[in-house]
Amino acid sequence: MKMKDSALLLELPGLLMERNTQLIEKDKEIGEKEKVLTKNTETLQMKEKMLEEREKLLQETKDKLEQMTKEFKMNQKQLKDKDTQLENQIKLLREKETLLEDTVKEVDSSKEQLDTLRKELQDKSSRLQEMMSGECSGLRLH
Predict the structure, then answer these.
(1) Is 0.85 topped by the overall pTM?
(2) How confident is the model at residue 132, as a pLDDT?
(3) What are 25-76's pLDDT values in tens digits?
(4) In angstroms, rounded to a whole number, what is the distance separating the alpha carbons of residues 99 and 94?
(5) What is the DSSP string of 45-64?
(6) Alpha-carbon distance 83 to 70, whole Å?
């Protein structure tokens, strides 16, 4: 048994060196993986930061859109009110136009009546002058 132990003791430095080499290789692999993991962590943090910025921009855009929607609705209401107001003004103008047309008809009718009366007056005036000139000539003859 002592020989067996001696043989093992002789192999032990070689086994330890081989194990040490394996551990060094494993340590290098772990180091490389840590570098990759660190890089991936940094990339992930950068992406998280970009995502936060995008979310912030999205919220700002959403807020602006809500504000613009409110302004649009207010403008739409104002336009609707203005449209109603204009429709009412058009209605009033049409009523005034109808009244003016009626007034023009009345004025035309009154003018026609006045023209008729004027003509009748001229006819009567002419007959009166004829009668008076006939009487005047008759008076002279006497």
Answers:
(1) no
(2) 86
(3) 999 999 999 999 999 999 999 999 999 999 999 999 999 999 999 999 999 9
(4) 9
(5) HHHHHHHHHHHHHHHHHHHH
(6) 20
Write out the two tokens for 38.
Answer: 């660190």
pLDDT in tens, 105-135: 999 999 999 999 999 999 999 999 988 887 6
Structure tokens at 46: 């950068």
Structure tokens, 54: 């995008």
**CA-to-CA distance for 30 and 36, rounded, in angstroms?**
10
Q: Around 82, how many Cα atoms within 13 Å sit in the side-chain half-sphere?
A: 6
Structure tokens at 2: 């002592």
Determine the number of helices (DSSP H) and then strands (DSSP E) in the chain.
1, 0
Neighbouring C-alpha atoms within 13 Å toward the C-beta of 105: 6
CA 130 to chain centre: 84
